[in-house]
Design a protein that fits this description.
It contains 13 helices and twelve strands. It is α/β, with parallel strands linked by helices. Bound molecules: glyoxylic acid.
């Protein structure tokens, strides 16, 4: 029997490529930029498996071009760029990489929180620009992290890992989630709050929720109005959970104190975007899970998921297990 064919949309760590080359014919988009749409549409024509990143939109048009496709694997935990119901209707398996990146992403989220509270990037820019001419009592004075109240929206694996870090800073931990998490409340002392109460009480509001129709534009003008003028918004989920125009106005008019953003509605965010012109914004290029070790683990996990799906074994981390019952 001919080996199944796979297309990988970015250069991934070598061991993950090797794992797939053991069983399949593998083609890779080698350039250090996302695969152009027309190339993707052409490459998917006769493949059995597709290995993608958060940067590719996998929708009906792609699937219409991919009549042999049996499985898609994303090297990420979030999969809002993929039309899951369209995949499921066609019996195509989707796998992703949960768990393996939780601690690394929580580390980055906490680093972003601290950098924003203590104005680290702003202070660094100030110094590098030669503006530091004398010590001054209130120079770059920021907000305290230790002992402050953190409000986590989305108490999944990453939220829990973040709450654990917050305990080390003696923070009061509030959370809002679809379901209450009694074990997290007990183990980490987290307190459940309604969405509005969390916004009103928190010094740091941290978004870690997946992007769904319910969480799109979750934070807009009304929500920013509920937050304290000294509070900080941290977004490490997906850009579209925040109305960026409303956030810009709130930051400009000091309705909230600052924002730390790892994700944006448009990625990469254009250099001249209004949010990037503000001193009270710390912006990062979507690097939540970007440690060398974790990215290697994610690459392997996504490769294993695709291999298992194509060899007829049940993948460990299936997004749409109902596909198996349609076969
Ligand atoms: C990254 O954003 C991921 O979902 O893994």
């Amino acid at each position: 029997m001919d080996k199944a064919k796979i297309f990988i949309t970015r250069k991934i760590p070598e061991e993950a490529i090797q794992l797939l080359e053991n069983d399949f014919v593998v083609k890779i988009w080698e350039e250090d930029r996302p695969v152009p749409r027309e190339v993707l549409l052409d490459e998917v024509k006769d493949i059995d498996g597709l290995y993608v990143m958060v940067s590719e939109k996998i929708d009906q048009e792609v699937l219409d071009h991919a009549s042999n496709l049996k499985a898609v694997s994303i090297m990420a935990v979030g999969y809002d760029n993929i039309d899951v119901s369209c995949l499921t209707k066609r019996g195509i398996i989707l796998t992703h990489t949960p768990g393996v990146l939780s601690d690394t992403t929580a580390d980055l989220t906490f680093a972003l929180l601290m950098a924003t509270a203590r104005r680290i990037t702003e202070a660094n820019r100030y110094l590098l620009a030669g503006k530091w001419t004398s010590w001054s009592p209130m120079l770059m004075a920021g907000q305290d992290v230790y002992g402050a109240t953190i409000g986590i929206i989305g108490m999944g694996r990453i939220g829990e890992a973040l709450a654990k870090r917050a305990t080390g800073f003696d923070m009061k931990i509030l959370y809002h989630n679809r379901n209450r998490r009694p074990e997290v409340e007990e183990r980490l002392g987290a307190e459940y709050r309604s969405f509005d109460d969390l916004l009103k009480e928190s010094d740091f509001v941290v978004l870690l929720t997946p992007l769904t129709p319910e969480t799109r534009n979750l934070i807009g003008e009304r929500e920013l109005d509920l937050m304290k003028p000294t509070s900080i918004l941290i977004n490490a989920s997906r850009g579209a959970t925040v109305d960026e125009e409303a956030l810009y106005q709130a930051l400009l008019n000091k309705k909230i104190w600052a924002a730390g953003l790892d994700v944006f509605q448009q990625e990469p965010i254009p250099k001249d975007h209004p949010l990037l012109q503000l001193d009270n914004v710390v912006a990062l290029p979507h690097i939540g899970s970007a440690s060398i070790a974790t990215r290697k683990k994610m690459a392997m996990m996504a490769a294993e998921g695709l291999r298992d799906a194509l060899l007829g074994n049940r993948p460990k981390h299936m997004v749409n297990p109902e596909v198996l019952f349609q076969l």
